[in-house]
Fold this sequence. Notes:
- The longest helix has 55 residues, at 202-256.
- The protein is mainly alpha-helical.
- Helix content is 69%, strand content 0%.
- Helix 3 (110-147) runs antiparallel to helix 4 and helix 5 runs antiparallel to helix 6 (202-256).
- It has six helices and no strands.
- It has helices at residues 4-19, 72-100, 110-147, 153-161, 164-198, 202-256.
Amino acid sequence: RTNPCLGVLARAASLQGMAYAPLSRSNGYVAGQSADFNQHSQHAEMSGLLRILPRSESMDVSNDPRFLTNSVIAKRLAAFQTITIVSSLMVCLSVKQMFFLEKGIDIHTVKGVVQYSGFCLMTIVFLMNLSTVVVLTQQLFMTYRLLTAGPTGFEIAKSYYLNPNLVTMRHVAVKSFFFSLPTFVASSGCMVWVSFAAAGTQKLAIPVVALLAIAALTLLCANLKHMSIFKERYALAKAHEHPLLEHVDVVVSQSASGGFPALDV
């Protein structure tokens, strides 16, 4: 008499083998299956309208388990995502303020000089944040694509991330974002002065404009202080790291040359 438990186990094993059957690259068929999903789809071929567009090819999709684990590059890119989101908001806000500003400017008056200065500062804020969004978005997109390119995805993404050209553009983009914040506050102060001057109450704007000017200088000093402390800590980390790496290299070289006895484990 056949044991029913053996029958259940055999059935489970057969289903598991079908689920994990390898995909053949030659004909696109899955082992144990007799149909290709693309061949029986009415949208398998490219439509005629899309053929006029520039030719593009998608990267190979391979389910490498290492893609599910965090890496140093992924953690660094997570920090840039926050800057990209805030820069996008700053782009929208600066453009809105640029169009709201009155265009009737008389340069020969104090009001006109302040008004035009605020407009120029807001334009600088727009351009700095727009460049930040363009650079960081492209690097985020392409780095993540290279990370999932295959077994050597991390190494390729690392070489792309540390490319001198990309490093320079990324650092300039990040610095542009942080310097655009005090510039935006200064431009807002100019626009506040213009609004009060149009109503003939410039004296009421003096405390607000002074407060905004102090806030802009505070943001600038805070940015410079953060950068200074970061460079100091980074240099300190490298200074403590160098002797340790030298010691490890010495130990490895002596072990390879037989200077140390083999471990008895």
